[in-house]
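Now for today's protein.

===
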Amino acid sequence: MSRARTKAVTTVFAVFVVSASFAGGVGAQSSDGVTLTVTVVDEGGNPLSDASLSATWDGGGPVNRTTAGNGKAFVDVAEGADVTVRVDHPHYVRNQPYVVENASGGDVTIEVARAGRATVTVAGAEGPLDNAIVRMFHDGQPVINERTAADGRFTTPEIERGNYTLVTFKEGYLRNRTTLTVDGQVDERTTIRQESVLVTFSVSDDHFDPPRAVTNANVTVPGVADVTTQGTGTVSVSMPVNDVYEVTVTKPGYDSVTERLSVRESETALNATIQRTPAIGVRADNDRVVVGEPVRVTVTDEYGAPVANASVSRAGTSIGETDEDGVLSVPIESAGNVTITAESEGRTAETTVEGVGSGGASTATAAGTATDSSTGTPTETSGGFGPGFGVAGALVAVLVGALAARRRGE
């Protein structure tokens, strides 16, 4: 190979190597990615080196980079993604991650602040309170939402220096709101006090339009209240503030309901609705029916409305279905107690009627009377005129006696 050809080949290979190195180096991007040029600065706008960056997005990352002396780093991300960039630095901090929406490349400047800490102690009338809530907001954004330890204290992680809105409270206690300036390591003590507010419970049956008040409904709040609604379907209870409660409403014949109720620092109310437990009932027009005659039965739901197409059986034998008025005639074919059963949508009900003979007595009674008369024993009447002497005979005897007395008088 000639010297010229060798030089040309070498030049082409060098260009290929340089191109490949550039494609895989800083600032490179794939066909579906873009490069963010991220600059980290302090509150004065001064660039910061040695800031660790971690970029993530839905389905991608993390991409980790460290800023150079000029405060910059190149971060490759998916094009069009919403990218969250977190910053970590030995002396600076950022309370909230930085979000790049619909990433398309270009320059991104992220500001951080000097780090500080705050130790907050929450106390009540009885002293430091454990499990009290500590919330801190910076520029309207939530930064801290934690609870105190057994000694009533909570110490924040490193947060930005500056002014914070500090809110402390606990279930059953009023909120304490104040401004806290974090300019290094600071300590703050707040005092909160117990309080209750009036809560009114209203219970109604929304089967009706408009809903109707339900009296004598039981309202239970575990550990707080167990009360009963009055004539208006309401009842009021004093309950501790700033807590969330499970409220259960029950009444015999109704399905129970459980509602969540948040009680803050002013009077509030809970409107609960219940409905009767689905059921059917069956009733007969008569308790006693002459054998061979039908009895009319009516099937209704839990609210007394007619149930159409309910299956009706007599002593286990199917008779038919109710009409649109919930009515069906059931023949009574035997003496004694007869059970009539109705069924609809898996719910059943039954009633009992008594079959009696045509003389108004059951077959057993009629049979007993016939047996007694067959012995030939005469039946005594209450008049005491002797065997077989009926009312007509007695009347004739009286008339004859009167006539004889008249003749003797003549």
